[in-house]
Structures are given as C-alpha cells and as structure tokens.
Amino acid sequence: TEMNRKRRFICTQLDQYLKVMNTNFKSISIACKEAYLFMKKRNGGHIINIASMAGIIPSFGYTAYGISKCAVINLTRSYFKDCESNVNVTAIAPGIVVTRMGNLKFGDNIANTYTVSRHTTIPEEIAALVAFILSPVGKYLNGETLEACSNENLF
Q: Which residues are part of the catalytic machinery?
C-alpha cells in the first residue's frame, strides 16, 4: 500500500534512526562548533545551516529526518543565543528541491503531487538565498530559519 512505501516511525530501527541523526544533526553540530571557534578567532563570520521544512512541518514517513532537521533549527537558535562575537548563525529550511536525492529532475511534472504553487525549488534558488544571507543585510537574520518552500503542502 501507499502507506507502507514510507517507513512508519514506530517501525524505524534504532541503528537507522541513529544513522539519520548522525548524518543530519551530529555532523552539522560538530561542523558548526568548529566553524564558530574558527570565526570567533578571526573576529566574525556567518554560519549557514541547512535544515528542512520537514523539521518545521511533520510529514508521514519522514519523522526521523524531520526530528534531525528540527534539531538543526534548534541548534541555530541556540548558537544565536550563545554567540558572544561577530559570528552570525542562520538556517535555511528548503522544501522539495530538484536533486538526485529527491529523485526529481528539472522539467518533471510535479503538478498536484508536491506543491500548492506547482513550483519545485532548484538548487540555484537556494544558492541565491545563501548569497542574500551573506550580504550586508544578512546580519539582521541572525538566529533565524528562512523557509524556502514555494508554499508547499507537505502533508
């Protein structure tokens, strides 16, 4: 059935859950700490964490992934509160992005399946958002998570 194609969280094995947490949260947590210490010594910088809309809006079959990305969002807010220097920390929470991981390619017909706006984000749009965050106005986004989701209906 359709529901069995995605893994129910209750059926997720501990080793699978830990692999998702290690990949999506632990690695970012370690990199964020090292980047912060490096930037603090150099009197400033901007850390951009990549989260996911799944960390904001729960979605069936992606619970472990959503938990790991919610942790990234909380990490971003925590670093904002903890930072004592000119190091800014911002997160981006993309929705569906045309990537190999998402099994989508540019030009796929995603109408009535993924998004309300019938637009799937392309990587270049996320890159443009990164450039905006790194611009002079990006300092006003410290501690924030920017939702880059094209008005998606993720339920």
A: 65
